[in-house]
TrEMBL record:
<dbReference type="InterPro" id="IPR052703">
    <property type="entry name" value="Aromatic_CoA_ox/epox"/>
</dbReference>
<protein>
    <submittedName>
        <fullName>Benzoyl-CoA 2,3-epoxidase subunit BoxB</fullName>
    </submittedName>
</protein>
<dbReference type="InterPro" id="IPR009078">
    <property type="entry name" value="Ferritin-like_SF"/>
</dbReference>
<dbReference type="InterPro" id="IPR017635">
    <property type="entry name" value="Benzoyl_CoA_Oase_BoxB"/>
</dbReference>
<dbReference type="InterPro" id="IPR012348">
    <property type="entry name" value="RNR-like"/>
</dbReference>
Length: 477
């Protein structure tokens, strides 16, 4: 059974908001502040309307509706996946007990913190991507950018709902702070590092949706297992929307590589910049950067907090219920890599303290799948070049590799060697300028900027040349 969502309400929801006047009033008080934030820090390009997907039900099929809507009238709402009345906690010391419908006092602070950290990333990415519309390579891509943006806005709503509904006055204050911190702000930055980096151009946007949204997918995957049922259900539904964000990243990079590969084959050179394409070495450097900052988001490999959250039943592992072990993990071990005397060595550590690493390993394996797809494009074009995921220790600021200098192939370098070589591995100001020089907007339906191939198909069975976005008059030229 799927629960339909009532769009007659000011805040569309499937959480019975109409039956809880206090909560409804509190959220209706937050709504204008959200809209102010959206106007001030949401997409900068003025549009009349955009062909957007809106969730209409949370069930397995037919959950979304597509239509041209003015973006500020998008119906941000609060949607939780269906409740399973028999759901039990799947791990930790509460394993087998019924999932919590209220926040247990002993886990209150931790749950609130996890929700705030997750919530903070959602508006951050909208802020980071604010100016990209001005250089969109097509209306198709522009629409996808805005779809990602409105859904990140909705994910903020989901987290704010949890804070308001379950965490009292402190929760309401945290909800205010989520609109107060801003990406890259000197005094009041976003909580996590990667969310304070600017998204300077579309190559970085696609790398961001590929690598950093994917980090989000894995974090949500652990919260989806939470013993706190409203959080689990919120994350489950968010994951559904996130799938499209990663599609945007995977196919975006793939289309760039496609274009680059064609130019390389045609002109028999790697230096395709003069032909309007993005050279493969620049794509590789952007990839190296976004992958490494995204790995930092997983935190230290060894973390007693992660073990504590797990044992408490607050945060599980990726696909917890499919794991073939006791789901308690006391006494279990695994190996991790550390740098010792200038060498990489494996050491055995308690699994319970290495759950961040467990999650990161799942993530890295997933990241590798897209790279394989991109390399298929190069192979199909008859080219010997390949893209690579750098070593997990490359360019790291958090965890066991922080303070060491590793090359993308995992060799350990001294500081001087790193100084001279790192510009071969990370985007240089010249790379960014070169990419920026290609970022000219293409707002004609069905036309694409020269540096990216068109997609195979449009959105929701619409043709590629569909008028996905209508710009406001002042948005043109
Ligand atoms: Fe999100
Ligand atoms: Fe996302």
């Amino acid at each position: 059974m799927t629960v339909p969502i009532d769009y007659a309400e000011r805040i569309p929801n499937n959480v019975g908001l109409a039956g809880d006047r206090r909560l409804q009033r509190a959220l209706e008080g937050w709504q204008p502040k959200f809209l102010d934030w959206w106007r001030e820090l949401g997409p900068a390009l003025p549009t009349k309307d955009v062909y957007l997907r809106t969730a209409i039900a949370v069930g397995r099929d037919g959950w979304a509706h597509f239509a041209h809507v003015p973006m500020e009238q998008y119906r941000w709402g609060i949607f939780l996946a269906e409740r399973d009345p028999d759901r039990a906690i799947a791990f930790g010391r509460h394993k087998g007990e019924p999932a919590w419908q209220q926040v247990p006092g002993e886990h209150r602070a931790v749950l609130q913190r996890l929700i705030v950290i997750q919530g903070d990333t959602e508006p951050a990415s909208v802020e980071q991507q604010r100016i990209l519309g001005r250089t969109a390579p097509s209306l198709y891509d522009l629409r996808n950018l805005f779809q990602v943006n409105v859904e990140e806005g909705r994910h903020l709503w989901a987290m704010v709902y949890l804070l308001h509904a379950f965490f009292g006055r402190e929760g309401r204050e945290e909800a205010e702070q989520l609109l107060h911190r801003h990406s890259g702000d000197h005094d009041s930055p976003r909580i996590l590092g990667a969310f304070n980096e600017q998204t300077t151009d579309w190559l970085q946007f696609f790398m961001f949706t590929y690598f950093t949204d994917r980090d989000g997918k894995y974090q949500l995957g652990t919260l989806k297992e939470s013993g706190f049922d409203p959080l689990a259900r919120t994350c489950e539904f968010m994951l559904k929307e996130e799938a499209h964000h990663m599609f945007v990243g995977t196919t975006g990079v793939q289309r760039i590589v496609e274009r680059t590969a064609r130019l390389m084959a045609e002109h028999d050179t790697e230096d395709v910049l003069g032909y309007g394409g993005i050279p493969l070495p620049i794509i590789q450097r952007y990839l190296n950067f976004q992958f490494s900052v995204s790995l930092d988001l997983f935190g230290s490999e060894q973390s007693t907090n992660a073990g504590t959250y797990y044992s408490a039943g607050v945060k599980g592992r990726w696909q917890e219920t499919r794991r073939d072990d006791d789901h308690v993990l006391i006494g279990a071990e695994r190996t991790m890599t550390v740098v010792e005397d200038g060498k990489l060595v494996g050491k055995s550590v308690p699994l319970l303290n290495a759950l961040n690493l467990d999650l990161r390993d799942e993530y890295v394996a997933d990241c590798a799948r897209g790279v394989k797809r991109w390399n298929q494009v190069l192979a199909d074009a008859g080219l010997p070049q390949r893209l690579h995921l750098p070593h997990e220790g490359f360019h790291r600021k958090v965890g066991a590799y922080a303070g060491h200098h590793l090359a993308p192939d995992g060799r350990i370098l001294d500081a001087a060697a790193w100084q001279t070589r790192s510009r071969d591995w990370l985007p240089t100001p010249e790379d960014r300028a070169a990419v920026a020089s290609l970022m000219l907007p293409e707002y004609e339906p069905g036309r694409f900027a020269a540096w990216i191939a068109p997609p195979r198909a449009g959105i929701n069975d619409r043709p590629v040349e569909f008028d996905y976005v209508h710009l406001a008059e002042e948005g043109i030229g």
